[in-house]
């Protein structure tokens, strides 16, 4: 354990020395545009890294469950709202049921289908509105001299 602690301390000290060298000996004053560019570069590292992690997670998900869940054992939701199926028996969960807790949202298959239809209609209206706004914006640009 002592050897590990000593190794970690040595690595930390060398890292601190490197940081000090980079931020003092190699320091070049940047103009305002350079500061902005470096800020964008430093901010882009976690964004790009996160994007690649998400792409990896998506590929693993597709690999495990299929593109649309075709590899899943249970393709339909077992139980809904405050109902669950444990060992083939249906139990009530949440307030007043197994495990206590709060009242859970309840929706049967018909309600889920209605919600899906309403959500689809809302997205269609929004798409139509955005197309109309884009068309108006393009017309406004064309009319300008």
Query: Separation of termini?
Result: 76 Å
Mean pLDDT reading: 83
- The run of helices and strands is HHEEH
Low-confidence stretches: none
Q: Tally of extended strands?
A: 2
General shape = flat
Q: Biggest sheet, strands in spatial order? A: 1-2
Q: How many helix segments?
A: 3
Helix content: 55-70%
How much of the sequence is in beta strands? 5-15%
The multimeric state of the shown protein is: single chain
Structural class: mainly alpha
Largest sheet: 2 strands, antiparallel
Radius of gyration from CA coordinates? 28 Å
Structure description:
- With 145 residues, this protein is mainly alpha-helical.
- The chain is built from 3 helices and 2 strands; from the N terminus they run ααββα.
- The protein has a two-stranded antiparallel ribbon.
- A hairpin with a 2-residue loop joins strand 1 and strand 2.
- It is flat.
- The N and C termini lie far apart (76 Å).
């Amino acid at each position: 354990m002592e050897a590990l602690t000593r190794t970690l301390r040595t690595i930390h000290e060398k890292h601190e020395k490197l940081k000090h060298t980079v931020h003092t000996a190699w320091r070049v004053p940047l103009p305002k545009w350079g500061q902005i560019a470096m800020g964008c570069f430093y901010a882009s590292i976690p964004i790009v890294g996160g994007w690649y992690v998400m792409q990896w997670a998506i590929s693993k998900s597709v690999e495990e469950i299929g593109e649309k869940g075709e590899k899943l054992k249970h393709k339909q939701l077992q139980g809904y709202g405050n109902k669950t199926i444990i060992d083939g028996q249906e139990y009530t969960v949440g307030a007043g049921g197994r495990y206590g807790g709060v009242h859970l949202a309840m929706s049967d298959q018909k309600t889920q289908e209605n919600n899906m239809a309403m959500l689809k209609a809302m997205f269609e209206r929004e798409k139509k509105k955005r197309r109309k706004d884009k068309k108006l914006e393009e017309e406004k640009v064309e009319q300008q001299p």
